[in-house]
Amino acid sequence: MPIQERIRAEVTGHPIVLFMKGTPQFPMCGFSSRAVQALRAAGASASQLHTVNVLEEPEIRANLPRYSDWPTFPQLFINGELIGGCDITCELAEAGELARMISEAQKA
Predict the structure, then answer these.
(1) 18 — phi, psi (to 5°)?
(2) What UniProt keywords apply to this chain's record, in alphabetical order (predicted)?
(3) In terms of Cα–Cα distance, which of 87, 85, 54, 81 is closest to 71?
(4) pLDDT tens string 62-98
(5) Given this model, what pLDDT does residue 107 score?
(6) What is the mean pLDDT of the chain?
(7) Is residue 56 classed as helix, strand or coil in its secondary structure?
(8) How distant, in Å, are the alpha carbons of 3, 8, 76, 106 from that of 13?
(9) Are 13 and 2 in contact (CB under 8 A)?
(10) What is the span of the domain harbouring residue 86?
(11) What is the pLDDT of residue 106?
């Protein structure tokens, strides 16, 4: 499967997808760790949050910025739509928007 199709399958196959460095249990960068904490605080359970460790997926790491037009990691997608990186995820969480988005993603 071509890498762009594989990325699309990840993004559309799960309501909430976080492309990150490391795993939720062992994040390998501070930004990924903060994004996971924001998602958990906003109500995303471990079973709802699908993550892709870009350190173990070099093809995805190299090609996701072209797919999403977003240069850095982590990258959060909800219902197939790019939400943004760590700063945007944390801002949405602080504003209460992330909890609403997560709740709606579960219903979709």
Answers:
(1) -120, 115
(2) 2Fe-2S, Iron, Iron-sulfur, Metal-binding, Redox-active center
(3) 85
(4) 999 999 999 999 999 999 999 999 999 999 999 999 9
(5) 76
(6) 95
(7) coil
(8) 15, 8, 14, 13
(9) no
(10) 3-107
(11) 73
Number of domains the chain contains: 1
Residues 46-73, buried b or exposed e (16+ Cβ, 10 A)? Answer: eeebbbbbbeebeebbebbeebbebeeb
Phi, psi (deg, nearest 5) at residue 21: -95, 115
Residues belonging to the chain: 108
Decide if 78 contacts 101 (C-beta within 8 A): yes
Q: Reply yes or no on whether the pLDDT at 100 is more than 80.
A: yes
Please give the structure tokens belonging to residue 57.
């997926």
Whether the CB-CB separation of 11 and 77 falls below 8 Å is answered with: yes
